[in-house]
Structure formats: structure tokens, C-alpha cells
Amino acid sequence: MIMRRICCVVGARPNFMKVAPVVQALQARGLQTRLVHTGQHYDPQMSAIFFHDLGMPEPDAFLGVGSGSHAVQTAKIMTLFEQDCLDFAPDLVLVAGDVNSTIACALVASKLGISVGHIEAGLRSGDWSMPEEVNRVLTDACADLLLTPSPDADANLQAEGVAAWRIHWVGNCMIDSLLKHLDRARAENTPAQLGVTPGQYAVATLHRPSNVDDPQQLGPVLDALEATSRQIPVVFPVHPRTRAAIAQTGWTPTTGLHLVEPMGYLAFLGLLADSRLVMTDSGGIQEETTALAIPCLTLRANTERPITVSQGSNVLLGTDARRLAPAVAGILAGRGKIGTIPEKWDGHAADRIADLLMQPVRTLRETTLG
Ligand code: UD1
After folding, report:
1. 117: helix, coil or strand?
2. So what's the pLDDT on residue 253?
3. What's the first-to-final CA gap in the chain, in angstroms?
4. Domain map of the chain by residue range?
5. Fold match between domain 5-172+345-369 and domain 179-335
6. HEC string of 225-265?
7. Which residue in the list 37, 181, 207, 348 is annotated as catalytic?
8. pLDDT digits (tens, 9 = 90+) for 345-357
9. Fold classification of 179-335 (topology level)
10. Atom of ligand 1 nearest to the CA of 209
11. Which of 93, 116, 123, 303 is the one with CA 20 to 30 A from 232?
12. Which residue's CA is minimally distant from atom 37 of ligand 1?
């Protein structure tokens, strides 16, 4: 029997671009999908605009959980998603990435005896102080099908003793969205709208708790961005968490540093695509810059996406913000890393997932165990 009822979960901004191509590929194969939005992110610029930009169908259910402590947010998602699963009895729940919505829904489905698939499985930063690392490891433990973006993720799972039938190297769904929408994104002319010249500006994003929650860390990072903006104009779309943290410091930007509201998918992709370099602590942007061959400086001590460093255009700078200005000077002097694009970051990861899901999980298990 073909698995027909697949519930796809989204909750926070980085989920939308990973799940959109999967929903489309499943529907193209005649599989019945149900799209559930937990409401972890709810501002129009953090959520609704992504549905519009990515051409995603309206969610079948919006759980409206909103913000809260990790426990409150996770518990709210679990309570509401459990009822949704009981009402609609999916054969498989597909979750993506490493946000609280991911672990909450994987755990619910797992305890209801529903198969779970995890898009972007197997990534590990090795840093248990990151909420996302906890979410990754626990989600992978719940998931039957571990849909990985890169061979390093397969190796992590193998090292943890995961059975081979559960691991499927499918490629990077976020890059499916990037390749599909790049021309439309460029047509948005974001640089011109922001008054910067293509190829002659940098982009900065920051939202990791480790960089923004502690003023002792955030202050030097902001100072470093300011120093950088004396070398090249910097566009800095500010995440709500970061905006709140900046407000606490009383810091105000100089003229070369353009603080703007969070952007929609197309506007931001267009901004990235024509930038000279990117400074970030985001996970996804490390991958998007690798796919675009744009030098990326990552302000973190570790990355769960090492292929962006070993193959791509990413440099892991560490958490000492004083390293930023010299690294930017190096890139502007022509020493930026370009790298190569990893295998299966080719626009067809969602197709591979959908082809796999044409078979029930039980069959996958039995086939592999042979
Ligand atoms: C979450 C994810 C993180 C991901 C990031 C992308 C977890 C544990 N973290 O972090 O992995 O990289 O999303 O953005 O799931 N807020 C708004 N409007 C919104 C959403 C949030 O104002 O639409 C505010 C909240 O009120 C809260 C803060 O932003 O104060 C943090 O939101 P939350 O979803 O808890 O975590 P993120 O920091 O966004």
C-alpha cells in the first residue's frame, strides 16, 4: 500500500524554504499532504511573506503557539499537534531542521506510533549549549527516516549507531528553493531599493542566543560590524530577537551600517545573491552563500554544516568579533573563499524525498534488511 497521508510541519522562518519544495513534490506524485504551521514564528515578515514568496499553499492548520520559553513553546506545540494528529491520522509526519517545532512534532508523532521523517537530519555542531543541537539529536532519535543533506550527516548518524535503512542522503531542500527562485529574487532589485550597489556591499545577520542575548558579546559584535561598515556598506536585516537585544544596549548605528526590518524570502535572496560578502551566525545562510559562491564569515565557534567550510565558501571565524574587520579586509583584497557546490545541492532533493516516500516506511525497512 502506498503511503498517502503525509503531514508536513513548518513553524519557524528557516522551515519554510525547506518544506515548500517537498510539499510540491509530494503533491506532484499524488500523495495527500496536510500542511501544519505551528505558529512559532508569526510576524508577517517572519512567516506569511514566505508562504507568498515560495508559492506555498495556505496551511491546513495554524496552531498559533507564538513565543514563550522553550518549555512553554514546546509544550504548547505538542498539545495542539497531538490533537491534530489524532483528528487527521497521518501515515507519516515530516519535520524539518532544528527548531522547537521540529522536536515537538517529531516527539508527538513518535509517541502516537506515526512514522516520522526528518528533513536535514544528521547535522551536528557538537555544542550541547545550542538549543538547536538538542533539537537535532532528539529529533533524529524520534525519526524513522533520516533525510540528510550531505555525507557528513550520514557519517554522524552512522557513528551514533543508527541503522542503515533509516539514513537517506537526499541533498539540500533549501537549495531546491534557492535555485528555483533565484531569478525572481534578483528581479526584486533589493540592492537598488536599499540604495546600495550590486557587488559593493556586505550583508550581516545575527540572531543566535550566544551572540545576541549577552550584552558582553553583542556589544563587541556591533562594534565590529560598525568597523566593517567603514570598509564596505553593510546591510543588516535585524531579527526580532536581536532588535530587542540591541534596544537594551542603547547602541545606534553609523551611516555605513543599514539596519533594516527582517526581509521576505525573495528580497533577502536577491540581497544575498548580489553581495560581496556575508557575515552571519545563521545556519541556513552558510549554505545559501556556499550555493551562491559568495564568501561567508560565520561568527560562531562551531558549525553543524562543516561541508560549507570544507567545500564551500564559508570561514568559521569563532566568537571573537575583533577577527571580523581583518577577515573582511582580506576578502575585499581578493582573498575571499568561493569553494565548490556540494553534491546533491542540485535542486532535486525534494524529488528524492518524494520518490522515497512513495514507499511505506515498513517497506523501506524490510527492503534494506532484505
Ligand atoms: C528560532 C530557532 C532558530 C532559528 C530561528 C530563525 C528554536 C529553538 N530556534 O529562533 O534555530 O535559527 O528561529 O529565525 O526554535 N519573535 C517575534 N516575531 C516572530 C517570531 C519571534 O517577535 O515572528 C520574537 C519572539 O517574541 C522571541 C524572539 O523573537 O522574543 C525569539 O523567537 P523564537 O522563535 O523563540 O526563537 P528564534 O530566536 O527566532
Report:
1. strand
2. 84
3. 18
4. 5-172+345-369, 179-335
5. yes
6. HHHHCCCCCEEEECCHHHHHHHHHHCCCCCCCEEEECCCCH
7. 207
8. 999 999 999 999 9
9. Rossmann fold (3.40.50)
10. 38
11. 303
12. 241
Q: Which helix (H) or strand (E) is 279 found in, with range?
A: strand 277-280
Distance 230 CA to ligand 1 centre (A): 30
Q: Pocket of ligand 1, candidates 41, 78, 139, 303: which has the most ligand atoms within 8 Å of its Cβ, to mutate?
A: 41
Give residue 35's region: left, alpha or beta (phi > 0; psi -120 to 50). Answer: beta
Residue nearest to atom 25 of ligand 1 (CA): 67
Q: How high is the pLDDT of residue 2? A: 54
- Express each pLDDT in 232-287 by its tens digit: 999 999 999 999 999 998 888 888 899 999 999 999 999 999 999 999 999 999 99
Please report, for residues 90, 146, 347, the alpha-carbon distance to residue 351 in angstroms, rounded to integers and kept in the order given: 20, 15, 9
Q: Give pLDDT < 70 ranges for the chain.
A: 1-3, 368-370
pLDDT value of residue 365: 80
Spacing, Cα 274 to ligand 1 middle (Å)? 27
Measure 174 CA to ligand 1 centroid, in angstroms. 19
Residue 70 falls in the annotated catalytic set: no
CATH of 5-172+345-369 among 3.40.50.2000, 3.40.50.150, 1.20.58.630, 3.20.20.140: 3.40.50.2000
Q: Is the CB of 100 under 6 A from ligand 1?
A: yes
Find how far residue 15's CA is from the centre of its chain. 6
- Percentage above 90 pLDDT, the chain: 93
The dihedral built from the CA positions of residue 57, 272, 40 and 350, taken in this order, carries a sign that is positive
Query: What letter represents residue 168's amino acid?
Result: H
